[in-house]
Amino acid sequence: MFAGPTTAPATAPAAAADDVAIEARQWLATISIQVKLTTGKLEQALKLAEESIKADPMYPELLSLKATILGEMGKTDEAMTAMTAALAIQPTDVSLNNNMGYMLAVLGRRLDEAEKMLRLAVSGRRQETAYADSLAWVFYKQGRLRMAGRVFQGLIAQGDTLDAGHGVIFDHAGDAYWRLGWKDRAVQLWTKALELGRKVENPMREDRELLKNTPAKIDAARKGLEPNVAPLGDTIMPDENDAVEDGAEDSPPERLPEF
To answer: Does some domain include residue 105?
Structure first.
């Protein structure tokens, strides 16, 4: 899942008065854009981001925010262009690598490249649940379902420490578990995802999609129908080693935690 941008400039405070003024301007612009973004004022947020980028074209945080705004507006190709520009400035930044890798995973494109980015992000910040979810999601999109399941298992083990902003993680995990044949647990995860999603005060695009689509998955599963889980990546087929015969395994191994 996307990781939220930082709320302060990435560079350390400089002693020179001019540098301090630049950093103050960057910080104020970042905060102002974030406020408009999280309150759904996307056109205003985009306009402010573009104006701020003209003043600070080499500040990757602004380009990352622009990419997020464009993604919220459904302008995927433009969002990718902005994120690519941010990465060109800071190619090893863990947040940028997570967000770009996750965008590719969601689209089902360039999955090997996305995996490399997400492994970099996770190695740099192992406790960040958003990054772990992104890596699990690229495994899912690659058809490596048991690899995805292992990562989601660790995330689910955190239980109540995952707050309302993490409903997407449970939704992703539910899709992976369903494809693995762990259908009862998948429904539990989707139900948890809805519970958390309904608590989000200012839902982003993914939160809204969760609230729109997940009830239908739960309803289909309970009726014995096939729910509309997320597709795998382009031209990807599930790994044969991940296949679960019908009725052979209704839930994950017992060591998987309850919540």
So the answer is: no
